[in-house]
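Tokens for chain A. Residues wanted.
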């Protein structure tokens, strides 16, 4: 079942509480449930998807209206069927109007994914992709994302490591993208690079709860990691 079918099941059964569950309750009856597949909703995947949509909404300009640019950004982050775009926009709009601040959503995700820091990092990756839909991450958006990262328990240096991958390619510092100090030795660099590649393999993301519809972003993340390693390897002649 696609993540959109799982959202339907969660919305109908209100399987998740907190502000995320409240959002699902607000769209119950709108998402189409696949009656031929009554698979129990995957809690992590549902929370991940709604969390990214809700936090993306809080990051957007709170004008009370869903613009086509915002909806298009979500469509690029997730493989959203045309038939479900209206419902994604509905979740987005409800989150924008919700009196709960972004803190409530960030803290619920941090609680649900406690011990799964990689999945919280994946949430930030999705938010960065939404933020840069217009080809740049504005200072207001970056500050918002830094505050969300703090709610997730990430240090400033960890946040900077994530942010570095979303800088325009020509301006990227390859060491920052890999999250290593320029003084690192070649053997340690190779070992760190291999671990990054393994941790960000699509199969690993699926195993920790990232919906399949989100895998395209993993591919882009791996591309940034590979390009940065190649640049350093070329410079060091290794």
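Reply:
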């Amino acid at each position: 079942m696609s993540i959109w079918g799982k959202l339907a099941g969660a919305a109908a059964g209100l399987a998740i509480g907190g502000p995320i569950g409240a959002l699902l309750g607000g769209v119950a009856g709108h998402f189409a449930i696949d009656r031929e597949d009554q698979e129990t909703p995957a809690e992590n995947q549902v929370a991940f998807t709604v969390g990214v949509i809700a936090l993306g909404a809080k990051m957007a300009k709170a004008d009370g209206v869903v613009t086509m640019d915002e909806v298009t950004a979500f469509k690029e982050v997730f493989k959203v069927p045309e038939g479900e775009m209206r419902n994604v926009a509905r979740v987005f709009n409800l989150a924008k109007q919700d009196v709960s601040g972004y803190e409530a959503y960030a803290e619920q995700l941090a609680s649900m994914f406690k011990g799964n820091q990689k999945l919280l990092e994946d949430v930030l990756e999705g938010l960065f992709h939404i933020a840069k839909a217009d080809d740049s991450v504005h200072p207001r958006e970056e500050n918002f994302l830094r505050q969300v990262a703090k709610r997730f328990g990430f240090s400033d240096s960890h946040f900077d490591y994530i942010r570095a991958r979303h800088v325009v390619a020509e301006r990227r510092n390859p060491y920052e993208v890999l999250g290593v100090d320029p003084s690192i030795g070649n053997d340690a660099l190779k070992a760190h690079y291999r671990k990054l590649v393994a941790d960000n393999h699509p199969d690993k993301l699926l195993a920790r709860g990232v919906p399949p519809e989100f895998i395209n972003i993993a591919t882009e993340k791996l591309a940034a990691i590979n390009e940065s390693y190649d640049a350093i390897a070329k410079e060091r002649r290794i």
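The first helix runs from residue 3 to 13. The CA atoms of residues 48 and 123 lie 7 Å apart.
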